Amino acid sequence: MATEAIKPVYVLFGEDAFLHDQHRAQIVEGALGDADPQLCLSTLDGDAELELAAVLDELRTLPFLAPRRIVIVRQADDFIAAHREGLERYVQEPCSSATLILLAAAWKTNTRLHKLVQKAGRIIDCSCPQDARLGRWLTDAAAKRKKKIDPAAAELLAEWIGNDLAALDGEIEKLSSHAGPRETITMEDVSAIVTATTGPVAFALTNALTRADAPGALKALYGMLQTRGEEFRVLGSLAWHLRRGLASGQKLRAGQPPEAALPWMPAQEKQAFLEMIRRRGPSGLMRDLRRLLQADLAMKTGADPVATLQDLVTGLCRS
Question: N or C: the chain end with fewer CB closer than 10 Å?
Fold first, then answer.
């Protein structure tokens, strides 16, 4: 955006609020530079009641102590539908000292307005990226921190966090700091500090451990160890499970009720998790963490991952 000439009109469409905010901020920064936005930026709520004349008046107001005037119309779908012909006329002869930014949930590409905006301005898809596009997005997010991210690490991060771009961006920030002087974010980094929050793979093993269900835990383990490198995902899941057990136990011993100590956990799983905390106690959970660190070290020094993790999981299921 910094090297691109600022356009008189932008359309940002799609469901991802993080991308909307990111692109909008880039446009505003590129258009205004160091100018005070309070003096030259107007934000309007776009609905069918918003008059086009009010928007045009804002656009035609000369900027004060700034190179351009910015007018943002939020939730602009109804506004666009109600004033499509007027917007077509404006886009053909836009104000030279202003930029209009339309933030919409959807955008029709088979309209005359679409073609006119393509010619005069820029249309930005803010739909959440999926699959390969999400991997590229993570690569770009790491590059902004002057880092690379291993493809397997990016895949693991996406599986654990899902396609919540704001959360993923936060995790990339933490991972970049964790990597320190190293150039590349690895699966080991992800497993060390990222908390899995989505996906059945992230929870099948830990749910079985909560119930001390050794056969179920081993079944989940074998289901995870399908390809090379999956052992890091297992270690990350186990570390997350034990860390949250310790943290929740500390809150309970401090007198917090279960609802406050375990606010993130569904009610149907809470009782089993509380029983696990009481059964193992703080000393047992700390012992489990030491076992995990020993298994991690063993695998990094040549031990067979499957056998090592099988012994670890079996041990974690013992009371």
Answer: C
| Adjacent-strand bridge partners of 101 | 10, 72
Q: Which fold has domain 131-193?
A: Helicase, Ruva Protein; domain 3 (1.10.8)
What phi and psi values does residue 72 have, to the nearest 5 degrees?
Answer: -110, 130
Output the six-digit token pair for 111. 């309209």
Burial of 209 from C-beta contacts in 10 A (0-12 / 13-18 / 19+): buried
The domain locations on the chain are 9-125, 131-193, 200-317
pLDDT at 182 over 90: yes
Strands (E), the chain: 9-13, 41-45, 69-74, 98-104, 122-125, 148-149, 184-185
Residue type, 264: W
The one-letter amino acid at 270: K
Mind giving me the DSSP string for 117-152?
HHHHSEEEE-SPP-HHHHHHHHHHHHHHTT-EE-HH
Amino acid at 292: L
How crowded is residue 219: how many other Cβ atoms within 10 Å of its Cβ? Answer: 14
Condensed to tens digits (0 to 9), the pLDDT of residues 16-58 reads 888 899 899 999 998 888 888 888 899 998 876 789 999 999 9
**pLDDT tens per residue, range 219-259:** 888 877 766 667 877 887 788 788 888 888 888 888 888 77
Secondary-structure class of domain 200-317 per CATH: mainly alpha
Polymer length in residues for the chain: 319
Q: Check residue 194 and report its DSSP letter.
A: P
CATH of span 9-125: 3.40.50.300
What is the spatial distance between Cα 65 and Cα 39, in angstroms, rounded to a whole number? 7
- Write the single-letter amino acid at 93: E
**Cα–Cα distance between 104 and 79 in angstroms, integer?**
9
